[in-house]
Amino acid sequence: MAVEHFGKYQLEFVPLELAGSGQWAPYLIIRKFDEETQDFKCVFEKQRASGDAVFNTEIEAVNEARRMGNALIEAGRI
After folding, report:
1. Domain count of the chain?
2. Global pTM value
3. Phi-psi map region of 38: left, alpha, beta (phi>0 left; psi -120 to 50 alpha)
4. Which residues form the domain of 41?
């Protein structure tokens, strides 16, 4: 699991190893900093990034979750 910040957003990348396959699925959680509560609030519940895509390494899965998270924020979809 890796956590990064993008402006007021906190992105959590969760690579999960698929049982018996040796492959990794990328998951993503996004939280946004709330000025009123001075804390992060979840704005994107844990979801699998990139549909059914799987990756050979944990790092590739994290990179895919990062790509998706950044794209969602840049497109204003979060």
Report:
1. 1
2. 0.90
3. left
4. 2-74
